[in-house]
């Protein structure tokens, strides 16, 4: 016996597929919007500085260099040698000028020797505007 | 005798809420599990003086506030100091002149966390002119 197709009463709009699509879109945007934050999400455990100032807007030229507790240098999760970092910073200076800020996100357990290496490279590249990133509030 | 089947249907004009609530709970669980709160990050500005090669070498240290960051503690003008003492001094310096330069000589073997700790104290009292010199020992 042939089954009767389910039909909605005349004039009634089926909302279910529309709601499904809206939820799918919400999930998509929430997941993709978080990607920008995840680029900086490394294994660097920063020291606390509750008295530091919070910037509303960061200089778009800012170069953020991570230094983990073993002294490994990376930018956006990409490990770099000292030579590669120098090349990147030289390029940043040529493109954005000497006022390009460099933020060093050092692990609180990293020896200053590793931080010094990064500062020296910044100096070699002609970038003197250095900043240390720290945690104002832990989530 | 064939039984007559009665069609079960929601009364006319009533929206079926059960699937919507199901989906809402699914979403709630998804967001609770996946979303992690973001840390608030601050930036501590420092100045790194370039070595002046034309200047003659001098044994006498320049007249400024000198803070040493060592592996096992801090010094203030070459005298061992605790963080409480440093904080008190920074407060004093800031009340006199917040624009005066503080030079940090950081030992290569000290941790970065120690340096951030004193920079945080300077930030607390509005001391902004901070120079960092790295020591090799």
Report on the structure:
The complex is a heterodimer of chains A (139) and B (137). Chain A has 139 residues and is an alpha/beta fold. Chain A has a domain of 70 residues: Nucleotidyltransferase, domain 5, CATH 3.30.420.270. Chain A is built from 4 helices and 5 strands; from the N terminus they run H-H-E-E-E-H-E-H-E. Chain A is elongated and about 75 Å long. By secondary structure, chain B is an alpha/beta fold. Chain B has a domain of 71 residues: 2-Layer Sandwich (Nucleotidyltransferase, domain 5), CATH 3.30.420. Classes of the chains: A alpha/beta (139), B alpha/beta (137). Chains A and B meet through helix 1, helix 4 and strand 5 of A and helix 1, strand 1 and helix 3 of B.
Query: C-alpha Rg of chain A, in Å?
Result: 24 Å
Number of helices of chain A: 4
Oligomer: heterodimer
Main β-sheet, spatial strand arrangement of chain B: 4-3-2-5-6
Dominant shape of chain B: rod-shaped
CATH top level class name of the domain at 63-132 in chain A: Alpha Beta
Name the structural class of chain A.
alpha/beta
- Cα end-to-end separation of chain B: 101 Å
Instruction: Report the sheet with the most strands of chain A, covering strand number, pairing sense and barrel closure.
Output: 5 strands, mixed
Largest interface: A-B, 50 and 43 residues
């Amino acid at each position: 016996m042939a089954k009767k197709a389910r039909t909605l009463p005349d004039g009634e709009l089926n909302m279910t597929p529309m709601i499904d699509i809206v939820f799918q879109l919400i999930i998509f945007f929430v997941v993709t919007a978080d990607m920008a934050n995840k680029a900086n999400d490394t294994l660097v455990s920063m020291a606390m500085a509750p008295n530091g100032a919070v910037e509303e807007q960061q200089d778009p030229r800012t170069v953020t260099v991570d230094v983990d507790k073993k002294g490994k240098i990376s930018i956006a999760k990409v490990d770099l040698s000292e030579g590669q970092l120098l090349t990147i910073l030289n390029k940043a200076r040529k493109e954005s000028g000497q006022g390009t800020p460099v933020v060093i996100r050092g692990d609180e357990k990293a020896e200053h020797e590793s931080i010094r290496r990064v500062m020296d490279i910044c100096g070699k590249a002609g970038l003197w505007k250095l900043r240390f990133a720290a945690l104002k509030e832990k989530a | 005798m064939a039984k007559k089947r009665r069609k079960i249907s929601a009364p006319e004009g009533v929206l079926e809420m059960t699937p919507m609530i199901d989906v809402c709970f699914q979403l709630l669980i998804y967001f609770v599990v996946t979303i992690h709160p973001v840390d608030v990050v601050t930036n501590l500005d420092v100045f790194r003086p370039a070595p002046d090669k034309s200047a003659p070498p001098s044994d006498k240290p320049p007249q400024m506030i000198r803070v040493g960051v060592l592996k096992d503690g801090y010094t203030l003008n070459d005298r061992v100091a605790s963080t409480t003492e440093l904080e008190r001094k920074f407060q004093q310096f800031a009340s006199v002149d917040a624009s005066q330069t503080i030079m940090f000589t950081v030992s290569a073997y000290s941790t970065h966390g120690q340096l951030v700790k004193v920079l945080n104290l300077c930030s607390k009292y509005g001391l902004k002119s901070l120079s960092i010199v790295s020591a090799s020992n």
